[in-house]
Each structure stands twice: as structure tokens, then as C-alpha cells.
Amino acid sequence: MYKGLIRALGAVLALLALYSLLGFLILPGVALRIANQQLAQYATVPAHLQRIELNPFSLELTLWGLQLGEPGKEQVGFERLYANLALDSLWSGALHLQAVELDKPRNEVLFAKDGTLNLTQLFKLPPSQPKADEPPGKPFPLRIASIKLNGGYLHIEDKRPSEPIEFLYDDMNLELKNLSTLPDDNADMTLVAQGPNGGRIDWAGTLSLSPVASQGTLKVTDGKMKLFWPYVRDALPLVLEEGTLSLDTHYTINLSKGTELLLENASIKVAPFNLQAPDGRPLVRLASLQVSETSVDLAKQLVTVGKVRSEQLETWAALEKDGQLDWQKLFAEQPAKATAKEKAEPAAAEPTPEEQAAKQPGKPWQVLLKDVQLRNYQVHLADRSQKEPVALDLGPLNLDLQGFDSLNQSPFTLKLDTGVGKQGKLQAAGQVNLAPITARLDVSTRDIDLRVAQAYISPFIRLELRSGMLASDLKVDLKRVDPLAFSVTGKAQVNQLHTLDTIKDRDFVKWEQVNVDGLSYVHGDALSIDKVTLRQPYARFIINEDRTTNVDDLLIPQPAGAPSAGKAKPASAAASKPLGIHVGQIDINDGSANFADLTLTPNFATAVQQLNGQIGTLDNRKPVPAKVDVKGKVDRYAPVTIKGALNPFNPLASLDIATSFKRVELTTLTPYSGKFAGFRIRKGRLNLDLHYLITNGQLKAENKLVVEQLQLGEKVDSPDAVDLPIRLAIALLKDTEGRISIELPVTGDLNNPQFSVMPIVWQTLRNLVLRAAQAPFKFIGGLIAGGGSQDLGTVAFAPGSSELGGDAQSTLDKLAAALKERPELRLEIEGTAAQSSDGPLIAQQRLEREYQATWYKILQRRGDKVPANASMLVVDDSDKPAMLEGIYRTRLKQQPPAEWEKLSRDERTVKLREAVIKSWAESTPLLRTLGQERASSIKDYLVDKGKLEDDRVYFIDTSLGQAEGDGRVITPMHLDAE
After folding, report:
1. CA-CA distances (angstroms) from residue 943 to 715, 792, 823, 954?
2. CB-neighbour burial class of residue 912 (10 A; exposed 0-12, middle 13-18, buried 19+)
3. Taking the model in full, what pTM does it have?
């Protein structure tokens, strides 16, 4: 019994020794040799395993020093692989490992340019025999209590992108507890990986292999985006200068029924981030972007972003000369580059109906943004499509967005606050919908610099926008975009607008402020404004020498093929409805204007200042005239008023406007007087009252002109001047107070295209002046009662007489009264005698005076008593023949003809008398003397009886005229101006 026990014990010890020999020495050596033989046979690169250790008692296996690859360039390897088999694997029905440890594993993952992976090229494995399709079986039962990876090394290099990618994790540590392929077993997993380039990975959670599922947290810290950016660079032409990414999320993944992935409480941080274009232009600079409280549900295709916080993004965008955005050009689609494999493969056949159905768009992803806050953004905009590039900076820009839903199941809230340019502000807040696109926004602007529009108006008008600030408070309601439908309500204001005529470098239009209150615009339907207030508006209007205007000069002719507003696409029936315009009231405060007419020589220029007033309601859909009440001054001192009512949308239907100009200095009108009258104006003032009444196209106009103290200046050569005695006409028109009052009524049918008001007014005024100048005595005759149209310019005298008859005295009475009404007129009397009727009578009168003078001398020589004057003597007819002989010889300075000696005394006396009478009847001096006497009679009567100032009556040289049929002789008078 004892010997048997000893033999049994010896056998056991022998077996144990043999087992130990096999386990510790023989099996590791054989296994090492076989392993290296297999590596040498199938490996395509140098491969070697240093040693194998086996503990047959603790069932521990350790592999040391595996190396695949050239020395120093190993592609796969490790320092130690340790595994510990549990004994219960013999009866549990599953392979159970107590522990698996891998120390300092090394892996080089290399993708070649053609896409081949180095790991797939390490071994030349024999081709596997094809097997019939078999339903998937159960996984091999395996349980591992603990798996540890210590000091792992992973180097990845990818040469497929245009710029090779390379990144390294040289310190990887992994720990798995209770990994199992048995159903519903979960392993606890922890992974920490870090490398010299950052991008630390912290992964902790559970892992199940049957089914394949995992749950846990994944954290990536300070990942350098530049390491993997070439993948993006090949798809998008964006150059990453700087970018750091951090990720933290809780995840759940399950592959039992498709791919189910759920990310919860995810957060992403990008800071900083810097993108450039391939040519080096900056595109985006970002200080920080944080996305938190985010979830991604792959099964539901739902992304929910709780918070987005971003700071200090700076971006650039430009519209190029060809009309495309630089970003648009940057992202322009280009044909994808085919890989070497794709180039080698034959062209694919037409897709099957099933493949086409698979390509049909499926359920869209839904993205929810709950709370987005963007702060201190800067946007640099440029427009290079214009001749003069435009630059506009937006910022600091702050944007808040809440409740965004990409499927548009509900509107989202938007709030924008940004600077515009150097000092402008823009704010917008409200609700926005994307499908269909609608919006309700409150928009506010302050100090928006309108000079940014300069480049857009320069191609059309030679105008410099010196300054202008826009402010507004608006409510915008966008109902749809196709067709466009929106409305705008609120108020707007434009301050300090100043435009400059770039041709003459002078002001064109400007104002201090324009307020538009109660603005309401419905696109395509109506524009309504409660009130427009203009403060210090100014405009300049000039008529050039060629009768064009300064507005014509500013407009730049457009090429024939250029698009214009007049060549718009055909409008729909609804759009053809005219836009309704309603303006409740227009207030003008301290307005001014300059007007010049360069067609005149010298040039005419005037200014209107201190314009104040109101214009009432304007409405093109209601034919109610708007009240007008505007007051101002011409050249600072002359008041002007415009009052009445008009309908600017249909002025022919109804207009009632009265305009009054008071005390306008006429010297400003010198260019017009020089051009049309031929004289400058030295002094004078104008009062003008115009009243125009239009009813259904029928005009009734009243033009009342009052000129005060008008004095003409020097004469001006003008081919357009009227050929009229202007000075006389002015004197005829000017009353005792130095005023000229003219009323010019005009009536007509404005519906008649041949009818024009101003030519009629001008012709009427011209006819008035012409009538006064051509028949001045008839004109002044109408100034007094009883004068009628009588011609007061002549006085009739009996033959040989300078005595005024009753009719002549009546005429002179009326003339004196009329001249008193026109104090600047002077009367010129042209004494007249007619030989045919006056000659014989003045000759007889002269002969009688000669008889008296001769008889007066005889009486004196005799010493007789004589009267004081010879005209008081009465000469007896018997004494006359003797005296006639002497008169004949003395006055005719000749002897009587000899043949008269044969005549009787009486016959001789008759002949002598006829000769003397004939001589004196043809005497011009005697006739002129009679004319002078007649002129004196007229002046004496006007001065003595008519009480006319003697310095207003002039004699002009006498004339010899013709007698009337009844023998009367007419003495004409003339009028002239002082």
C-alpha cells in the first residue's frame, strides 16, 4: 500500500515535472519557432517575435518583442502581451481570461497616395475558399475580466489628400473590465490618449459586444484642427491658419437594430479659429465659439443645440466686378478628382430602380437652436463691382436667436444689434419663419451714413453726396417672397443731407432735417405718410445759356443697351394698379432756394429765403385739393406768400392758388429788362399778385402787377428787345405815387394742347405797352372821367389865329387833369401854321400893322398927339394908298413894275396890295411866328388855367403844316418821359 502510494506520488511528480518542462521550456520554444516561421512565410516585411513565456500552472502567457517592419521603422509591434486564462473556462462553456495586458504597443497606419493601407499589405495570406451564404451564428463565448493597454503608440499618416496628414498619439492607455461576448454583458472602459500635438482623448463608459453597444462620455481637449484640415481643404478651398477644437459629450450607441447613436449634453469649443483664402486674403477670424447643452439623435435625425456662445468673429466678404461674391467663387462647385481605383474601374452601368429609389431624399434632419448669442462680431463688406469700390463695416455686431427650427414648425426669435460704418447703429428684433419665409421685425437705425450710396449714384448723376444721416423706427411685416408681399410702418428721418454739383462745385440740394412720421407702406398697393417735416431745405435751379438746366447737366447719359427702370418686366394685373400715395401734411421750416437764368445778359440770379408754411393732405385716390399756405422772402426782404388749394396728382381737375410777391427789388430783374426791354433797371420794386383758378381744365387767371418807383438805367444792346419807347410807356403807366398798376386776366382751356398761359400773359402785357406808346394821349385820356378814348394830343386853331376856342379849351382841361395823374410825363408843343389858310390872313394882318406903324410915325413927325401903341390907331382907307407905295418899296426892296404906271390909281393900289400880301403870305418867319404864338397860347392855358407845372411843358421847333378841309390848323402835342 505504502509502495503503491510512493509510486503514485512519483508518477505524479514525474508528470508534474514533465508538464513543467513542456509548459515552461518546450512549448514556448516550439511556439516561438513556429510563430517566427509563420511570420517569415507570410509577412511582406521583416517580422520577428523575441520570446514567449508560459506558466502552465497559473495559465499565464506572455509574448515579448513583436516587431513587423524594418528595424527602426516598425509598422506594428509591442513590448509585451500578457494573458491569464481562468480555470473555469474548462466548465463554464466560455473562454474566460482573467487579464490581458499590452505594454507599449506600436502601430503605424499609413495610407498611400493611391489609397492603399499599409496594414493590409503586411501579410500575404492564401486566398480563402468561398463559402455558401450561411446565417450569422452566435459569437464565440468569451469573457475577459480585465484588459489593459499601457503606453501605446499610434502614428497615422495619410498621403491621399493634396497635403499629407500626419498625427501622433504617443501615450495611449486603455482599460476594459469584464469584456464579454455573452449577451447583455457590459464592460467598463477607460481610454486616455495624448500626443505631442495636443488633442487629448478621454473616453469612459461601458461596452457591450452582444449586441454591439456602448454608452459613456467622450472628451477631446485642445485638438489641433490643422492636423486633419487637409481633408476639408480638398473639399473646400479654405486655408486654416489656426484652430483648436475641444469636444465633450455623453454618447449612447447601439448597433443591434441598425445604427442608433445618441449624443447628449454635448459641448464643442473652438478657440481660436482663423481661415484664409488660397491667395492669402483673410476670411474668418474667431476668438471663441462654444456650443453646449447639445444633443444629436441619429435615429430621429434630430440635432438640438441648447446654447451657442460666440465672441469676436471677424469676417470679410466682397462683391467682385463680375457681380459674384468672393465666397461664391470660393465655393464654386468643381468636378471631384477621381481616385486611381476609380480611374481603373470601368464605367458603372445605369443604376437600377432600387438604387435610384435609395438615392431619393429621405426624411430631412431637424436642427433646433434654443439659444444663440453672438457677441462683438465684425463684418467687413466690399463692393468692387462699382467704378469706385465701396467698403462698409458692420460691428460690433451682436445677434441673439431663440427657438430656431430648421423644419420651421414654429417661428424663431431674432434680435440684432450692430454698428454700421463709423457711427451708425442698426437694431432689429422680432419673429422669423423660413418655410414659407415670413418675418415680423422691429427695425431701428441711427446715424446711418448715406455717403455709402455715392458709388451707386455716380454712374447716373454728377453729384457728390457730402453728408447725410438716416434714422428710422420701423415695423417690417414680410408676408411672403414669391410673389413679394410686405408692409412697413413707422417713421424715418434724414439729417444733414448735403449734395454737391460736381461740375460747378456748389450746393445742389440739402437740408438740415427731414422727418417722415406715420409712415405706412404696403408693397405694390399704397404709401401713406401722416406728416413730412422739412427743416432748412435748400435747392438750386439754373437755366443755362443753351436753355438746358443744371439738372440736365448733372444727369449722365446711359448707353443704349443699359437696363433702365422703364424696361421692367411686364407687371401682373394686380401690379398694374397705380400705387396709392397719401401724405397727410407737409411742413416747411426756414427753407431757401437759388435761381439763376444764364440765357440773359447780364445773368439773372435771385434767392428765396425764410420759406415757412404747410401743404395739406395729398391723396391720389381722393380728388380733394390740398391746402397750401407758404410764406417766404425773396432776396431776404421781399415777402412772398403762396396760398390756396391744389391737387398735384390731377392739377387740371382742381386748383385754386394765390401767390403774392411784395417789395421785390427790380434790380434783380435787370437781366430780363436788358434782354427784352433794352434797358437796365436802376431802381424799383415789384408787387405781384397771381390768382389761378382751374376747374376741370378751364383756367381763370388774374395777374396783378404793381411796380413802385421804377427807374430805368443805361441802355443795353439786345437783339430780343422790343422796338418801343419804353421810357414813355413807363411814364404813361406810372401814377402820381410812382406806381404802375397792371391787371392781366387770362382765361382758356388747358385741355387744348395749343393753349399756353405765359405766352398769352406776355403778349397781353406787350400789347398794353404798345398801345400806350403808340397812342399815348388816348391812353391818358382814359385815366380821367369824361376822357374816354378821346385823343387829347391836338389843338385846332382858326386860320391866322392863335386864340383858343371853346373846344380847344375843353381838350386842354382834360389834358391837364390827365397829366396830373402821370407826373413823370412832359408835354411837348409843336407850334404849327399852314400857308394855305394862315398865309393870306397873316399877310393882311401884317399889312394893317404896317399901316398903323407908318401912320404912327407920320403923326409923330407932325407933332400930333399919338397913343402909347401904334396898334391902337385907326388908319383911314384914304390914307392907305400913299403909304402902300412906301411899304411896297421897303418890304419888297424893289420899285413897282413900269407897266403899272399906266394903270389908274385904284388899279395900281390893288396891284401893290396884292404883291405885298403875296410876299407876306409866303413868308416863313411870319408863319413860324404864328406857330410859336399858338404854342404859347396852349402852354399859357395849361399853366394858368390847368395849373400844370410850367417845367413840364416844352416848346419844340415850329413846323409848317397843312390846313384841314375847313381851314382849321391843327397844332400837335407830344408826350415824353422825364
Report:
1. 33, 16, 14, 12
2. buried
3. 0.71
